[in-house]
Amino acid sequence: MDILKNRESRTDRRSFIWKLGAGASAAVASTVGMARAEAPKADSAAQRVALLEEEKTLRQLHQAFGRAMDKGLHEEVIGMFADDAQVVFNGGVFQGGQGVGRLYRDHFPSGKTGGSMQPAPGFELTAEQQSDSVEVSADLRTAKAVFPYSIQVGAPFETESSLAAMARLHGEGVRTWWEGGVYKVSYRKDAAGAWKICRLEYDTLSRADWRSGRRYAQPISVARFSSRFPADQQGPDELV
Question: How many domains does the chain have?
Fold first, then answer.
């Protein structure tokens, strides 16, 4: 009888210990589950902060791009692009370092192109077209953005007349006009973690024959690039 009672006592103790252990394990599992459920909230908050910081950095980069264009600091502009970047402008695609350099180092300066300019009267972009946006990827490595632009664009007169030649000697001989549209930009970080422009498209929505100070503006059409580099020494690598 004593032996039987001892066995029953040991069985009861094992059962109690097992239940206690199971209960503790369940409590731990519940705590871990709660911690895991709460983790995404913390991660999400940190992610939002990181995304906002990267968006701020990209907006500052775009502002620096605009200031450099206004001041004619084209080498500084070129340095904002990735080595394999492409720029789409006026029906042409300028590829890689050489193409981007050709556009900003040669083509833009020759036509006094790229500096900001007030919108031509009667040709202002709509409120929707003037809105901008920046979208950063979840891994914080790539981004896309849309920014409005209002700039002066120009091209040297092609005529070889003596008057045109004299005008070019005095830094003139350039036909200029106003263009408005949106930049469609793609960015990615380089190996050092710095943002670079990997694609920039000038999506032109309006053009007008207008100079600052005039009270009127007239719509114009402008010929797109018709030949590629090297046939056109300032031309694009590809035609759109």
Answer: 1
